[in-house]
Amino acid sequence: MNQNKIDSHQEEVSFVDVLRMLRGKTKTVVCITLILAIIGAVAGFVFTELTSVYGAEITFYLTPKENSQVLLPILQSEAFAEKLLLDENGLPPIEDCDSADYAAALAAVTAEKEAREEKLRLSKEIIAYPYELAIIEAEYNNLNNERVRIHDLLKMYKSAQDEIAKQPDHLAKIAEYEQRLAEVEQAWRTYKTEKYDPAVSKKLQLEEEYYLAKRTLKDARETADELVEKVLSKWRENEDVRNLISVIQRSVTYEYTKILDNTTANQKVENQNTSFLVITVAVERDSEMAETIVQMIKERTPSFVEKEIERITGEAEAECTLTSTFVEAKDMGDSSLIQNLIIFGVIGAVLGAVFACVGIVVTNLLPEDLRPQKNDKKNKKAADKAQ
What we know:
Blueprint: H1 2-11, H2 15-23, H3 26-51, E1 53-63, H4 71-75, H5 78-85, H6 99-158, H7 162-166, H8 168-235, H9 239-251, E2 252-262, E3 268-284, H10 287-313, E4 319-322, E5 330-331, H11 337-365, H12 372-386
Antiparallel strand pairs: 1-3, 1-4, 1-5, 2-3
């Protein structure tokens, strides 16, 4: 019976009636819309925080190139993650270490730095010395060639026979060339003794000193690595350190810049430019940690990479130059917090308005005796009578 009443009542409602129903409930619609808009904005904030990724791309220029690509696995290791947490000497804070072990490690690291500087100094001197030696060799060769030329002329004049050899002019030429040969030979011997031989000896001495410097650096590096490792082995037992290294390893990636080469008219091949190292930081939901890692990478990477390239390539000197000098950690997500707040807030507002309108219309379509307000009034009247 009640269902028949509802159906007959609904058939009589027009669009104008619906508008009349909503006109009296504007405040209700607005309130529900605002409430759901606020709830939607809160949901947008929560969504942003749960899905946000903070980080940056940091680029370094390497010279010489590291064509073997051994550097990338080294950077991806825990060893480099540790370096980011250490100071410029590769050591943890002194308060976290045994003082005697720390002092010994610091002394060894200092000795390694001095050995590296000495090797670099000798390397530069060896590279520059051939230009100085070339000038001395050129003068030495000029004197020697002149000596040989006069010697050959003198030999030719002395080889003359018969009447030509007895002529006064011929004998005068022989005497002239003998004197010139004596002078040139004296100049050649003097230059050889005072300039050329010392220059050649200096070249050999530099090469020997450079070889010894390489050996000294190798020994100093091994000693420093051993003593630093003794300090780090205790430092690694700290749970906070382990957690930080874990965060760094899963948040940082390493690669060389990608370039496209044309192989044919219709085909392009992606190659790596090993002169540019790109380090990408991407930390979930923690902007402060992302910024900390970015700054550590900018500060610690150059010295670490330079030493590794020198070791890998055998070069006396390598350079790792930061090109992303102003880079900072930022939100790397596709949408920002403001965007998500607006989107979720609008969705909440639309849903709130729709639900409020539908609820009001459905409620007003009910027969009088089935409406919530009517039932409330009947219950109140029944209660009053009972009293």
